[in-house]
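# nightly structure sweep
# worker-07 picked up a monomer target from the shared queue
# config: single-sequence mode, recycle default, output format = structure tokens
# input follows
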Amino acid sequence: MEKFVRNVDSIVVLIPLVPVLYHLILVFQTMTHLKADLAFYVCTAIAGYMSTSTLIPNIKQYLLKQGICGKDLGKRGTSVADKDIPEALGIVPGTIFLICLILCLVKFANEHHDKLLDCNSALLSICFMLFLGFTDDVLDWPWRYKLMLPSVATLPLLCCYEGSTSILVPKPLRSFIMEGDDITMFGHILGQVVTVDDNAHGAIIDLGLFYLVYMGMLGLFCTNAINIYAGINGLEVGQSYIIACSLLVHNLIEIQTNSLSTENHLFSAMIMFSFLGVTMALLRYNWYPASVFVGDTYCYFAGMTFAVSGILGHFSKTLLLFFIPQIINFLLSVPQLFKLVPCPRHRLPRFDASCGLMHPSTFQCRKDHFRWLPKANANKTEVANMTLINLFLQIFGPMGERNLCLCLLTFQAMCCGLGLYFRYNLAPLFFDE
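# output follows
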């Protein structure tokens, strides 16, 4: 039965790849001059998958010998609760990814000489976060360093960014900035901070330095958003896998339509193909029941890879459409992250060994404190930890770890699909083509 379940899971995991393959075939048919490039990136991704799959079983033994391991807190009370599971296995796909990316960059830079600076800054930022993540798994850095260093890692990206710093204003809001050919009072006030394009009739605002600050914060958000949306087997790698598939679909659509930024999307697709290959291999070992833990190493590396893809691909605003669950989880977590209410070290769901189900974990508070928190009754002194995982368990009831992960990943896939739908169907209603 267990083998059958794993076979079913393997088939389910391949579903997000279907739209990727579909659009890849369309690009092969319509953009014949890019066939060789894309075929090389796909072959490199396959090599990355095979290398990562081969190395993980070997490297995990070294990590166990060095004591870089932990217990699965979601298996307390079971026969495997005391089993040592190697941590920080994100170092394997991260290293293989860098090798694959270097090979791809050699080919890409030879054909696109003006992108050489982008290539080097991408490698530098991702390598920095991979190093930070691994040292965090080994040394357990304080949170103040985890918040500061990702911002430093985005500086190479921002220094070589040559794209636009302007944004389009949604059509319903343009009348607040300009009425006809005249700037409104609000437009004058806004013009003291940013540049309002008079010739565009309020449709374009140049944010300048503020846009660079936004992209720096985007890198900080991406690296930490995956890290705090974790705690059950397969979730960190699974959500990254689905986001990567969505980004690839977006890139391939833009390449297929031969948009003005085709070169940027080709660069982004090159990064995502290699990332997808190593992530699929890691998911094999991290899926329930996990034989390895990915650690902060993978979370930081994955988050920075997405930030690099969005910033250097010049679609940093679209990138957030694929992070809807992560944004929801962050907003839910704000009171605990900023210490407005108690925040335990681990906020993962509570496992009930008697029935094998996960329940929402809680934290203690006095009944006369935090009156604004949602409680079942006024005398209640326990409140569920504020994460999307616990919210799912509160809404849908207790469930097994595997089923919980599948539900969360299904929600991730639905949100990414919604993001693509908004980008290509609803966005024209609010923005000019």
